Amino acid sequence: xxxxxxxxxxxxxxxxxxxxxxxxxxxxxxxxxxxxxxxxxxxxxxxxxxxxxxxxxxxxxxxxxxxxxxxxxxxxxxxxxxxxxxxxxxxxxxxxxxxxxxxxxxxxxxxxxxxxxxxxxxxxxxxxxxxxxxxxxxxxxxxxxxxxxxxxxxxxxxxxxxxxx
Length: 165
Known about the structure:
mainly alpha
């Protein structure tokens, strides 16, 4: 599934970028590129949506026990450091659950519906700036999407160094 997401998101953003370029350099291609950009964006939405639903249902295989290698019940009471360390800085994003949710809904809006609205409106009004806005918004959303993808991971380092019961 991640490979399909990656290909569809890349193709969607590529065609979204091609639209303002075609508008400026080859206007006869704009309709085709807008249709392709919207179709690929919708396909990417279906694929990424399925991935998010699947990921939400997964149960983490990592635990404090597996992160430390200790058998039996382990209860984390403190981080184990009086100051930050490489592990606490490099393997954890520091964002709250609410922050992660905001990033998720932000990228979902910026990568999928907003570019479609900009592209369709730009096509109807024949406005180059709307095509440019579609690409800028989608690209910004894709940066947030990639950050979310990595921040969402339950890395064993995060479990051991960040999770305190």
